[in-house]
Amino acid sequence: MRRALELYRSSPRLAALLCGALAATGFEPMHLAPVALLGLAGLIDLVWRTASWRRAALLGWLFGLGHFTVGNTWIATAFTYQAAMPAWLGWIAVVLLSVYLAVYPMLAALAAWRLGRANAAALVLAFAGSWIVAEWLRSWVFTGFAWNPLAALALGPFERPGLAAVLPLTGTYALSGIVMLLAGSLWIALLRGKADWRGAALLILPVALLLSPWSQPAPAAPHGDGLAYTLVQPNIPQAELNDPAFFPKSFARLAALSAPREAGRPRLLLWPESGVPDYLRDGYPDRYYLDNYGADPGVARMRLGKVAGPGTVLMTGTVDLEIREGMAAGARNSVTALDSGGGIAASYAKAHLVPYGEYLPMRKLLTPLGLSRLVPGDIDFWPGPGPRTLELGAWGRPGVQICYEIIFSGQVADRANRPQFLFNPSNDGWFGAWGPPQHLAQARLRAIEEGLPVLRATTTGISAVIEPSGAVRQFVPHNRAGRLDGVVPAAYAPTPFSRLGNSLALLWAAVFLVLCAVASRRARG
Question: What is the pLDDT of residues 501-513, one digit of tens each?
Answer without folding.
Answer: 999 999 999 999 9
